[in-house]
Write a structure and sequence with these properties.
5 strands; elongated
């Protein structure tokens, strides 16, 4: 009985130590969410206005720019998947990977080849384990991305869009990331970054009561688009990285809170079992003492006779 009690106590100590770790991770994630939310809020207006400016330039000119013009028969698309470098975030990375798989299947169903670009060790490990081809990958900054990281990710993607498909270029650029909706809701989303859907952008502005401005272009509309569109891609990727970081911290906080609560419930259950084992041990000791005393009394009575 004493051995069983020692086992329960050892498990209680182990679970208590785990609970302290998960509680600390929950608090760290909660503190990081606030910073990530502020960064998302600060980057969104810039990305939105830059998209509006690019849309205005493209709709206000008659040129056919390769970054705003739909290919007549698109044959290849690039998909940028944003996952996490670390785990302990519930289904955060796996949900984004599932969304990317669905997008990939849809594009292939349309007869397009798909080039995969991955951000985050979880996505890289997933594709590597399944021996899927990755054109390029980036790791090490998913918890706290910077604009320099976004530029690093955007550079090869922009180059691929500008390159002819016969030489390995792509006709479309898609991004899959987890959008931060609230502390309780983070949703994997799919967006097509390029070619820019001018009709959707114009309809969105009209729905908000906005009127796209008219511009005169110097030196030319094509030069303006050449300058604006890389910034557009960088800003959109940066905003996606920030959204994904905020979502990851929220998912980690939720997962660690659940782990902490479960550890607390397990400690209570183990404590009850330990108390029951201790009570059984005490009862057995009392029974042995009483039995021994009774046997001694009987032996004494027998010798007196």
């Amino acid at each position: 009985m004493g051995a069983q009690l020692r086992v329960y106590k050892r498990r209680i100590r182990s679970v208590t130590a785990t609970k302290k770790i998960t509680k600390a991770m929950e608090m760290i994630a909660a503190s990081r969410i606030v910073k990530a939310q502020r960064q998302v809020a600060a980057s969104t207006p810039y990305a939105t206005e830059l998209t509006r400016a690019v849309t205005a330039v493209a709709t206000g000119s008659t040129i056919k720019h390769p970054l705003t013009t739909e290919a007549e028969a698109p044959v290849r698309a690039a998909v940028l998947l944003v996952t996490s470098d670390r785990g302990l975030a519930g289904g955060y990375s796996s949900n984004a990977i599932k969304a990317a798989d669905q997008l990939t299947e849809r594009l292939r169903g349309e007869g397009k080849e798909v080039d995969s670009y991955i951000v985050g060790r979880k996505g890289v490990s997933y594709y590597g384990f399944r021996e899927r081809k990755i054109v390029e990958s980036w790791t090490g900054f998913t918890d706290n991305p910077t604009y320099a990281d976004a530029k690093k990710v955007a550079a090869p993607l922009i180059a691929a869009v500008q390159q002819d498909t016969a030489e390995g270029g792509v006709d479309e650029l898609h991004i899959v990331f987890t959008e931060f909706v609230s502390m309780l809701t983070q949703t994997p989303v799919q967006h097509r970054l390029l070619p820019l859907s001018l009709g959707e952008a114009a309809d969105e502005s009209a729905a908000k009561g906005e009127i796209l401005p008219l511009f005169d272009f110097e030196p030319s509309a094509e030069d303006v688009l050449d300058a604006l569109l890389p910034r557009y891609v960088e800003s959109r990727i940066y905003n996606a990285l920030l959204q994904a970081a905020a979502s990851k911290h929220a998912a980690t906080r939720r997962a660690m809170k659940s782990a902490t609560d479960n550890a607390g419930d397990l400690i209570k259950s183990l404590s009850r079992l330990a108390n029951a084992a201790r009570q059984a041990e005490i009862t057995q000791e009392i029974s042995e003492i009483v039995g021994g005393a009774s046997a001694l009394a009987d032996a004494t009575a027998g010798s007196d006779k």
